[in-house]
Design brief:
Elements (H helix, E strand, L loop, with lengths): L1 H28 L16 H4 L20 H14 L1 H6 L1 H33 L7 H34 L9 H23 L7 H10 L8 H16 L7 H13 L10 H9 L19 H5 L10
Helix pairs in contact: 1-9, 5-6, 5-8, 6-7, 7-9
Length: about 300
Amino acid sequence: MTALIYVVISASALVFVVATAVRAVGYARAPLHLRWELYPVPHEAPDRAAHGGSYFETLDWWTHPTHFNVVGELKAMLAEMLFLKALREFNVRLWRRSFPFHFGLYLLFGTVVLVLGAAVTTLVAPAVLAGSFGATLDVLTRVIGGAGLALTIAGALGLLHRRLTDEDLRPYTTAGDLFNLAAFIGALGVLAVGLLLRPADAPGVHAVAVGLLRWDTSVQVPGVLAAGLALAALLLAYIPFTHMSHFVGKYFTYHAVRWDDAINTRGGAMERRLAEYLAYRPTWSAPHVRADGVRTWADVATTNPTEGAKR
């Protein structure tokens, strides 16, 4: 049984990493998106970003070097990633349910990092964890992990309730949305119960992590905890194949769409890519576009869609 748990955890982690990487590469190789150019763009100079300005305001801007404000972009990214700033500003009712869910996931990710770090330390330098540092790390892991489980489950329950009861969301709610939230509640709920019911002398997550790294199948994991670990691992492997992988897409949405203000220089890489796109032969169902798979993007873009509409 222990070997099976190790296989499920290892395989699920591998699937998650590979599938997430494939998603990221796919987004990175996708054609250039139509830029939003919504300001303020946080990597602008602070004085411009403060009023929503742009380097395009500068006289003969194409003759001046551009400066990328890394600090400003990092501040905007962290506020959005950690605290869902935009959602709080525009839909605070949904934020009250979504923020606990996402922040709980961040805490769980941090817990996994702490557990793996402690497990590696146990193998290479066990003396480091023998004193007060090890005890403090254990308490910290329990607190962060417990808070992560509680917040994620509570947030998922809140989001599920909203999906089931909000008339405005009903047209946008699919069976997949409900299943995904139920999967989080079920998998993490079993894991939480397994941790709470684990006998004091039974192996915990740290012992399981050490056993996994050693591939020590003699570790006897309690049944409910084993089920919770397996379900959580399978859930991890499932995420990249669903729209819950938006944690990858969100980066590209901001950097390649919303905040993209790169200059299209003559003879540059962007110009070459755009020239390639103009040779595409799109197929759209909208009849006024007349994208029949024969005409190129250049034809579509240079044709007035209203021509012949009154004939």
